[in-house]
Design a protein that fits this description.
This protein is of the alpha+beta class. It has 14 helices and 18 strands.
Length: 608
């Protein structure tokens, strides 16, 4: 296209310079403010570190035992007999393994201290090692809420078989807890059966008995993946509601976070998730959590010292409230289970309809109801053709074919509007304002121009917004499809053609030893370049009814998108590339059909 340096071009350049200048003025102030806020969060995290270690460090149990002894002062001899027993400082661990993952159980806390995913799709990309979901953190799943009454003074850990283990603890207050951990053969689930006994002659009350759920860090920190978008969430489901309540743990206000994550009614399950993985804790149906509340730990990614990278690792705690243990064997029994694994659509659906809320496929929740069927259709197509790459192509074609009539109508409307441009310009010239016009003249000319334009549209049977409305109808579907392909963990480590991983850019050859602004690390990405070229071709073919400045802006869009999306995951660029090819072919057909109809109309005999 031949660009002229006219007043429109000058206006576009000036607007761009003003925006860039405003950005350069505003951004340093914004970054300084953000840095100060993150510094406060980091300092708070460092101050809370000793308390967090006390929750997970076995060595802290001796101090807790002393606290329990002080709290029990003045009680009966049977209740204080446990004070003479030393609190445990060393733990025992046992590992259980099924086909999908290996979990490590820490006996002293009765919790999961590790969960390694064994599926080859969920290995670290650089080292090839298994992803460890809970390699660190302040809280662990199945860990009892830290209260002075539950300080272990005796411990026995036994592996019953490769899929089952038993942990028996006696606490300083005399209570005995037997936890039986069981793994199914083909699921990312761990079942924990709790059996409490009170051998004392008097009842023992524990205030605020609760069970913690381990939170998950962001994907790029957990796995090293260079994800295009990221989101952390905490979720819970009220008993009987069938709906999932969600909260964003990255909010700066602790008051807002507490308000969003605290629930004072019975809760069936609680959860923490990132883009690809979920950590869920399900209560016993007969004994749901009486309430729940959220917790978070601010963390810097491994190797980073920049406060702007600070993010919150969210967690949840299910609280039973005050529980009284009557004397005798089998005082209280309940069963909890946790899911700790990838957010594969089929597995999450099997957990129940309310659990589907943890998928968070679309960043904008109002597109979620469209994005979920997209992922389901993608998986179904893959089951038919055996390839996620081909499934993406088929899914794109299905969506484009469904919208064929709408798109065709929009293209036809834009072509008719383009043909009317000479007549529209004549009217605009006829009713053009002049410096000599009075306000009344200007108003009269505008009214007459609008009237003549509407008459022209009626005569030619053209709707001026006919090319826009059909496109607007498609936007939610295409955003949902985009979100589905960006969030589907099923695409991770899946190759297609020269793409080694559909969740990563289709890099061919080495990258440059330096990064560029907006783009980052630069390499050769064939799909992104093909997508940009096809966008330019499509833009040249698209009928335009706007002014020259608008046309120039539209021609610059493919270049802008090249910079914005150069490191887009190859699954998404494959979708965009196929969609562009389909659009070009549809436009070609539309042009052919329009010429054919014009030829037929011209060949018809004119009525006298």
């Amino acid at each position: 296209m031949n660009f002229k340096f006219d007043k429109d071009t000058v206006l576009i350049v000036l607007v761009g310079c003003l925006l860039m200048g405003g950005w350069l003025i505003y951004m340093p102030k914004y970054q300084a403010k953000r840095t100060a806020e993150y510094q406060k969060m980091l300092e708070a995290t460092q101050q809370n570190a000793p308390a967090q270690q006390a929750n997970t460090n076995p060595g802290a149990a001796s101090a807790s035992a002393q606290t329990a002894a002080d709290a029990n002062a003045g009680q009966t001899p049977s209740e204080t007999a446990a004070e003479t027993v030393s609190a445990l400082t060393e733990t025992k661990t046992v590992s259980l393994e099924n086909k999908l993952f290996r979990v490590t159980i820490d006996g002293l806390t009765g919790s999961l201290s590790g969960a390694k995913l064994l599926d080859p799709r969920y290995k670290l990309k650089d080292s090839g090692e298994a992803i460890e979901l809970f390699r660190e953190g302040a809280y662990r799943t199945f860990e009892l809420k830290s209260i002075s009454a539950l300080v272990p003074v005796s411990l026995d850990v036994q592996e019953k078989n490769p899929l089952s283990a038993e942990v028996v603890r006696t606490f300083a207050n005399g209570l005995k807890l037997t936890q039986t951990f069981t793994l199914p053969e083909d699921n990312y689930m761990v079942v924990c059966d709790y059996a409490w006994t009170n051998p004392a002659s008097a009842a023992v009350t524990v205030d605020g008995l609760g069970v913690r759920l381990a939170g998950l860090p962001q994907v790029k920190d957990l796995t090293g993946d260079k994800v295009y978008s990221e989101r952390l969430n905490v979720d819970f489901c009220k008993v009987g509601s069938g709906m999932c309540d969600s909260a964003d743990p990255q909010v700066k206000s602790q008051e807002k976070f507490d308000k969003k994550t605290t629930c004072d009614v019975p809760v069936a399950w609680i959860g923490s998730s990132n883009k690809y993985f979920a950590s869920l804790l399900f209560a016993d149906n007969a004994k749901p959590f009486a309430s729940t509340f959220g917790e978070r730990v601010w963390k810097l990614p491994e190797g980073s010292k920049n406060e702007k990278d600070l993010y919150a690792v969210p967690s949840m705690t299910g609280d039973f409230g005050a529980v009284t243990f009557a004397p005798g064997a089998d005082t209280l029994k309940f069963s909890l289970k946790t899911y700790c694994g990838p957010k594969e659509m089929a597995r999450i659906r099997a957990l129940g309809s309310s659990v589907m809320g943890v998928m968070h496929i679309s960043y904008y929740s109002w597109f979620e109801f469209i994005a979920r069927p997209m992922v389901m259709l993608l998986n179904w197509l893959k089951s038919l053709c055996g390839s996620y790459g081909i499934a993406i192509i088929l899914l794109t074609l299905i969506v484009r074919i469904l919208f064929w009539p709408v798109t065709q109508k929009a293209n036809s409307s834009m072509r008719r509007m383009q043909k009317l441009q000479p007549k529209i310009k004549e009217l605009q010239e006829k009713y053009k304002e002049t410096p000599m016009d009075t306000p009344d003249d200007t108003a009269r000319k505008k009214a007459e121009l609008n009237q003549k334009m509407m008459e022209l549209y009626r005569t030619e049977k053209v709707n001026p917004v006919g090319g826009c409305l059909p496109i607007l109808l498609q936007i939610p579907v295409f955003i949902a499809l985009y979100s589905a392909l960006d969030s589907a963990v099923e695409l991770r480590n899946v190759p297609f053609l020269w793409c080694t991983d559909l969740s990563r850019p289709d890099l061919v050859g080495p990258t440059l030893p330096f990064a560029l602004p907006f783009i980052g690390q630069v390499g050769f990405h064939p799909l992104v370049i093909a997508m940009t070229v096809l966008m330019i071709v499509q833009q040249k073919m698209t009928p335009t009814a706007g002014d020259s400045a608008q046309q120039k802006m539209m021609m610059l869009m493919p270049v802008v998108m090249l910079f914005m999306f150069y490191n887009l995951p190859s699954g998404l660029t494959l979708y965009w590339t196929v969609s562009q090819i389909f659009s070009i072919l549809q436009m070609k057909y539309g042009q052919f059909a329009a010429k054919r109809d014009e030829s037929r109309q011209a060949s018809k005999p004119q009525k006298a």
